[in-house]
Amino acid sequence: MKRPLQALLLVVSALGLLHATVFTDLYLRYVKEGMRPLLIASGALLLVLGAAEAWSLRKPTAPDRDRGHDHDDEHPGHGHGHDHSAPPRIAWLLLLPALSLLFYAPPAIGAYSASREAPKAVEVKDQDAFDPLPATSPLPMTLTDFTTRVQQDRTKAIAGREVLMTGFATPDGSGDGWYLTRSIFSCCAADTQFVKVRAHGTPAPPADTWVTVTGTWHADGTLGTGSADVALDVRTIKKVPRPTNGYTDALLPGAG
Amino acid sequence: MQKTDEPAEGAAVRAPHAEAADAHAPASAAGPEDAAEHSWPRHWPLLLLGAAVVPGAVLFLVGRGLEEPAVQAWRTVCLSIAVQALPFLLLGTALSGAINAFVPARVFNRLLPRNPALAVPVAGAAGVVLPGCECASVPVANSLIRRGVDPAAAFAFLLSAPAVNPIVLVATAVAFPGSPEMVLARLLASLLTAASMGWLWLWLGRAEWLKPAPRHTGHHGGRSRWTEFRLGFQHDFLHAGGFLVVGAMAAATFNVVVPRSVLDTFADSPWLSVLFLAGLAILLSVCSEADAFVAASLSGFSPLARLTFMVVGPMVDLKLIALQTGTFGRAFALRFSAATVVVAILASALVGGVLL
Question: Partners of A213 in the beta sheet?
Answer without folding.
Answer: A165, A237
